[in-house]
């Protein structure tokens, strides 16, 4: 039999050019794609359920005789059809119906329906059931298997997808769909045969355990989940290999610059900073590109580590680019690096998207000319930015950058030949299991020690009915010479509304706290205005800063010791942790008030309680993962890494260690199986993370 991966969808009955295009849009190009387009869930249409035995919420096939059909005028006009089967009666309700439809539902008509039974005004009702009239002479067979419900897109019906999978299944056999998991691995990890798993999942038998399937615990699912996670792992390891195969500038350990830098710094690096610094220094001295992730909780001092790495490249006469996801953060790095490097005689350039006109072309020219240190936003990724001798790229807060952007950097190396080293820093601690999967292409260093003298932030939950007391608290703190943040959270995904709310809050607090100097900062302000406000807050000219979550990452004002977060229930825990990390940076005892809007849901209360209990980012990340699931936590859109078809990182996290071992075995012993697996599971171009 021909391999199904080689048979185009147009080989199926009923697939013409128009349908071919629709299918291509969801990545279905050949029969293997069709078979790996798996149902999201199932309906049981294999049995007719007596009306008397129906439970509310149950999806079921029922049969009965129409005992009456009336148009009723409730809140909305609807057609109500009474159906009875000897065991009971229920109503079918139609809000949209034609005269012809009404005529077809006359008293005495024998119907078979499918739909969800819901509690109605008088017993159970089914809204807009699928139905057909039965002819008493010829009995209508029920379905022989559970009915699959596929993920779909506009213009592609379930009916159509079922027909296609039916046809593809008819051609399925062990030879038409090669099993790329070697028998030895399948045995070691107790994985069943691929073709049987596929057949089962498209058309489960009537006795299949729907609950087990819904929870993803069935062996057939397990078989595919394993293969999918394995493939994902392989793609990241391939990515890593392809980067490692490049040449990178070898940077000898630096001596002079770090010495002078540390002397001026005013504090000694922590043990963790020294250890991670040494790991990086070693990598940079190698001829292949470093790909290292530094995970360190907020305030752990990642910037110093980044500076030490930069100095190694700078001392060797190369360029360094440092990029951050927001302008505020990039700007702060710019100020820090200018302060640190200029005394050493090293110039620092600035590049952001908002830099326009002459200033921009001047910056571009300087960079092309070999300006040693360049700090900016993702504008640094743009094609027009050409470096002369780029040897190291430092990316802060990596979870906002995609893999594809990291790859784009390859082209920016020395003469486009040497690939720059990459140092990625994140303050979003990722639970170990996930890190293994999400960052399989990176080496990891952990900065697990905070600089001395930090006191944990004391966090309290306060209902917003006590807002006035909280305002008084801000007054008291500022009168003692401390500074405070008042953070307004995102309103319904609308940045505009959120900024407006921040403006309103700013006015309210300015008038309530007339004697305090209050500032406002939000995402819709001009970069220059933001910088002025930030600078004033840093210098202590402003005592209270009303802000949106733009201050979430990196902003560093040690004298700020109080943070109020409005509606914290709207934010993820990782984000709350980031925000809270803006205080507790000095030696004063710091406080964070989570000013929530009651009533909180059960989970909402539990989540905020976690914030009160711990300041450890790793613990928070683990608990957040348990409560919310990984997609949300990592931000699927940003990473582009976690869009699985059958796997669910949360549910299947315990498989990851085995998956990683299997991936290593496959790469070492069956390398020819890797490409077919990638082609099977990943859409074109996604193979190296280019979503
Ligand atoms: P993050 O890891 O969150 O990026 P930063 O690099 O912004 O942390 O550092 C937070 C603060 O701690 C800064 O004010 C920085 O100067 C200070 N800091 C960093 N390392 C040390 C150290 N070893 N001793 C004292 N303070 C330090
Ligand atoms: Mg930082």
UniProtKB/TrEMBL annotation:
<dbReference type="Pfam" id="PF00270">
    <property type="entry name" value="DEAD"/>
</dbReference>
<dbReference type="GO" id="GO:0006281">
    <property type="term" value="P:DNA repair"/>
</dbReference>
<dbReference type="Pfam" id="PF19833">
    <property type="entry name" value="RecG_dom3_C"/>
</dbReference>
<dbReference type="InterPro" id="IPR012340">
    <property type="entry name" value="NA-bd_OB-fold"/>
</dbReference>
<dbReference type="InterPro" id="IPR045562">
    <property type="entry name" value="RecG_dom3_C"/>
</dbReference>
<dbReference type="GO" id="GO:0006310">
    <property type="term" value="P:DNA recombination"/>
</dbReference>
<dbReference type="InterPro" id="IPR033454">
    <property type="entry name" value="RecG_wedge"/>
</dbReference>
<dbReference type="InterPro" id="IPR047112">
    <property type="entry name" value="RecG/Mfd"/>
</dbReference>
<dbReference type="GO" id="GO:0003677">
    <property type="term" value="F:DNA binding"/>
</dbReference>
<keyword id="KW-0067">ATP-binding</keyword>
<comment type="function">
    <text>Plays a critical role in recombination and DNA repair. Helps process Holliday junction intermediates to mature products by catalyzing branch migration. Has replication fork regression activity, unwinds stalled or blocked replication forks to make a HJ that can be resolved. Has a DNA unwinding activity characteristic of a DNA helicase with 3'-5' polarity.</text>
</comment>
<dbReference type="Pfam" id="PF00271">
    <property type="entry name" value="Helicase_C"/>
</dbReference>
<keyword id="KW-0227">DNA damage</keyword>
<dbReference type="GO" id="GO:0043138">
    <property type="term" value="F:3'-5' DNA helicase activity"/>
</dbReference>
<feature type="domain" description="Helicase ATP-binding">
    <location>
        <begin position="283"/>
        <end position="447"/>
    </location>
</feature>
<keyword id="KW-0234">DNA repair</keyword>
<keyword id="KW-0413">Isomerase</keyword>
<comment type="similarity">
    <text>Belongs to the helicase family. RecG subfamily.</text>
</comment>
<keyword id="KW-0547">Nucleotide-binding</keyword>
<dbReference type="InterPro" id="IPR011545">
    <property type="entry name" value="DEAD/DEAH_box_helicase_dom"/>
</dbReference>
<dbReference type="Pfam" id="PF17191">
    <property type="entry name" value="RecG_wedge"/>
</dbReference>
<keyword id="KW-0378">Hydrolase</keyword>
<dbReference type="InterPro" id="IPR001650">
    <property type="entry name" value="Helicase_C-like"/>
</dbReference>
<dbReference type="InterPro" id="IPR014001">
    <property type="entry name" value="Helicase_ATP-bd"/>
</dbReference>
<dbReference type="InterPro" id="IPR027417">
    <property type="entry name" value="P-loop_NTPase"/>
</dbReference>
<protein>
    <recommendedName>
        <fullName>ATP-dependent DNA helicase RecG</fullName>
        <ecNumber>5.6.2.4</ecNumber>
    </recommendedName>
</protein>
<dbReference type="InterPro" id="IPR004609">
    <property type="entry name" value="ATP-dep_DNA_helicase_RecG"/>
</dbReference>
<keyword id="KW-0347">Helicase</keyword>
<feature type="domain" description="Helicase C-terminal">
    <location>
        <begin position="480"/>
        <end position="626"/>
    </location>
</feature>
<dbReference type="GO" id="GO:0016887">
    <property type="term" value="F:ATP hydrolysis activity"/>
</dbReference>
<keyword id="KW-0233">DNA recombination</keyword>
<keyword id="KW-0238">DNA-binding</keyword>
<dbReference type="GO" id="GO:0005524">
    <property type="term" value="F:ATP binding"/>
</dbReference>
């Amino acid at each position: 039999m021909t391999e199904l991966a080689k048979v185009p969808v147009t080989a199926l009955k009923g697939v013409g050019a128009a349908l071919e295009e629709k299918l291509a849009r969801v990545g279905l190009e050949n029969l293997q794609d069709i078979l790996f387009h798996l149902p999201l869930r199932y309906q049981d249409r294999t049995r007719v359920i007596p009306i008397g035995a129906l439970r509310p919420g149950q999806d079921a096939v029922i049969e009965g005789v129409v005992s009456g059909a009336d148009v009723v005028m409730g809140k909305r006009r609807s057609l109500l059809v009474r159906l009875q089967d000897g065991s009971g009666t229920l109503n079918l309700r139609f809000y949209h119906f034609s005269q012809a439809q009404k005529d077809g539902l006359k008293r005495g008509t024998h119907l078979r329906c499918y739909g969800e039974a819901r509690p109605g005004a008088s017993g159970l009702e089914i809204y807009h059931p699928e139905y057909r009239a039965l002819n008493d002479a010829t009995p209508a067979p029920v379905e022989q298997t559970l009915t699959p419900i596929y993920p779909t897109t506009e213009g592609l019906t379930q009916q159509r997808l079922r027909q296609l999978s039916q046809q593809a299944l008819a051609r399925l056999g062990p030879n038409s769909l090669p099993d790329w998991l070697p028998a030895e691995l399948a045995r070691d990890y107790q994985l069943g045969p691929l073709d049987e798993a596929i057949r089962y999942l498209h058309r489960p038998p009537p006795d299949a355990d729907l609950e087990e399937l819904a929870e993803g615990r069935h062996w057939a699912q397990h078989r595919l989940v394993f293969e999918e996670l394995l493939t994902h792992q392989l793609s990241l390891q391939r990515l890593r290999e392809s980067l490692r195969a490049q040449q990178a500038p070898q940077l000898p350990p630096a001596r002079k610059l770090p010495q002078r830098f540390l002397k001026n710094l005013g504090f000694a690096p922590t043990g963790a900073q020294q250890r991670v610094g040494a790991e990086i220094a070693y990598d940079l001295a190698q001829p292949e590109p470093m790909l290292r992730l530094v995970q360190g909780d907020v305030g752990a001092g990642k910037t110093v580590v980044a500076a030490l790495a930069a100095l190694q490249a700078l001392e060797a006469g190369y360029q360094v680019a440092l990029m951050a996801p927001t302008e505020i953060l990039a700007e702060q790095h710019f100020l820090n690096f200018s302060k640190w490097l200029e005394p050493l005689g090293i110039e620092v350039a600035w590049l952001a998207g908002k830099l326009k006109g002459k200033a921009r072309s001047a910056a571009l020219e300087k960079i092309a000319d070999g300006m040693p240190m360049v700090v900016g936003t993702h504008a640094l990724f743009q094609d027009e930015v050409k470096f002369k001798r780029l040897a190291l790229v430092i990316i802060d807060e990596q979870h906002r950058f995609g893999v594809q952007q990291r790859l784009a950097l390859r082209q920016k190396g020395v003469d486009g030949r040497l690939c720059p080293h990459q140092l990625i820093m994140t303050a979003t601690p990722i639970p170990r299991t996930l890190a293994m999967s999400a960052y399989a292409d990176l080496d990891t260093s952990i900065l697990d020690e905070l600089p001395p003298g930090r006191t944990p932030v004391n966090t309290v939950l306060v209902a917003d009915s006590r807002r006035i007391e909280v305002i008084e608290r801000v007054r008291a703190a500022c009168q003692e010479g401390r500074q405070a943040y008042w953070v307004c959270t995102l309103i319904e995904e609308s940045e505009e509304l959120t900024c407006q709310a921040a403006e309103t809050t700013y006015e309210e607090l300015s008038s309530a706290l007339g004697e305090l100097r209050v500032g406002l900062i939000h995402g819709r302000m001009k970069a220059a205005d933001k910088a002025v406000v930030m600078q004033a807050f840093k210098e202590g000219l402003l005592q209270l800063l009303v802000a949106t979550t733009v201050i979430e990452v990196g902003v560093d004002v040690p004298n700020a010791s109080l943070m109020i977060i409005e509606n914290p229930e709207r934010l993820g825990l990782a984000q709350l942790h980031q925000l809270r990390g803006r205080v507790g940076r000095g030696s004063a005892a710091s406080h964070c008030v989570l000013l929530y809007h009651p009533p909180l849901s059960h989970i909402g209360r539990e989540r905020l309680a976690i914030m009160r209990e711990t300041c450890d980012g790793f613990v928070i990340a683990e608990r957040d993962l348990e409560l919310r699931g990984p997609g949300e936590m990592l931000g699927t859109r940003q990473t582009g890494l976690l869009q699985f078809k059958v796997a669910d990182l949360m549910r299947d996290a315990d498989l990851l260690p085995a998956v990683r071992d299997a991936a290593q075995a496959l790469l070492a012993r069956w390398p020819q199986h890797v490409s077919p697996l990638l082609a099977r599971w990943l859409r074109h171009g996604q193979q190296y993370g280019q979503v």
